[in-house]
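User: Here's a chain of 488 residues. Predict its fold as tokens.
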Amino acid sequence: MESHDPTIESRLAVNRRHFFGRTATGIGAAALGSLLARDGLATESDPRLGLPDFPHAAPKAKRVIYLFQNGAPTHTDIFDYKPRQQKMHGEPVPEEYFAGKRFSTMTKDPTGKLMLGPVEPFRQYGQGGAWLSDLMPFTSTIADDLCFIKSMHTEAVNHAPAISFFLSGGEIPGRPTMGAWLSYGLGRETEDLPGFVVMTSVSKNTTCGQIFYDFYWGSGFLPTRHQGVKFRGNGDPVLYLANPQGMSRQMRRGILDDVAAVNEMKLKATGDQEISTRIAQYEMAYRMQSSVPELTDFSNEPQSVLDMYGPDVKEQGTFAYNCLMARRLIERGSRFVQLMHAGWDQHNSITTELYTQCRDTDQPSAALVKDLKQRGLLDDTLVIWGGEFGRTPFIQGDIKNRPRWGRDHHPYAFTIWMAGGGMKPGISYGASDDLGMNAVENKVHVHDFQATVLHLLGINHEHLTYKFQGRHFRLTDVHGHVVKSIIA
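Assistant: Prediction complete.
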């Protein structure tokens, strides 16, 4: 735990403003948010080190790949088969299913809304008999590797607050995200790449993309060295890694040494750990000059592996490319890789863009699980697939106009899946009611999900805390229970 005197914080804030105002130029490494202290300068704040006595127990998972589907996939069209929903297609939704519940301003009162059956047939797969839509043919092939949680529920009804709630435990921006908490608690395993990496993608020609806000991978009130590093979807993954024309690597090394010496003097004078963050940023940028080109070179990948991820795997910025990059990152020591794919917000495009979203994500997601399994990495790598909430089992729009069918935001029941990293494979946990409206069996709240992820990483979620403004904060706020039934 860390605590701070507000008067000292105030003085340090002035030093920070002075420091960043004076040194915000240069090689541009300040664009990097995940950092590493220099060799020979290891201290208690060395980001290679986690907190004392962490992890609390032997971890089942050593790393996480989070395939976050921005916009909220429609659970009753993909994973949560409800025969009664199909039978009631075109009939009014029964009032007892929504009485007293809050919906988005687009729905307001669901009275009179008509039930909408799944747009494609469902079938059962694997020894566990998991129900999946025909929209997910590749995911169906790994059904026995997945744990489906069909009783997820949340509190937010709009996208940004709901995404922030999943990733940081709070709907209001400003709290540390899951990757930042893990960087803070467990440290990092690599000197050459960030421990917390973020990549984003959007389906081509989509009309329902979501904005990727920086606070989705922020460090909040934790030291900024723990925030995620966002790799770009085109050009160099991180800007300004290449040396300017006429500057040799040796010359850059000399400049960095001189800058580091000056910064060390300032650090000793002020005690401001943001200065050590800046030192580490420069060092990470220097190391990434060598590590990033090797990371992004797919020439040594077997053609069979590239084919498994699909035709877009070599196109930078696609979900397929990012999935393969995620595997390569965790192989090289990154601890938390967060892939965010937008376009699932289908208020009037269930019969069009849902097909595009599934086509873009289904094959790469399944390939990632298969690839990790083939390499012996799935056992200690936790893969998570899901969005911020679900979508209404009733229609948004005119049921007579199939090309414009849609579904609104729905926080009361939805499905995610998890694989590897200590999860029980081939099971479905929890259930929604017979219309997919409300979670009713073995309900899993967002904070329960977060507590379970931390548990798999060997962390007691109640003990991963940070004191800020007089209060000890944690990812799970003051809630959360580990869902032990889904752990192998």
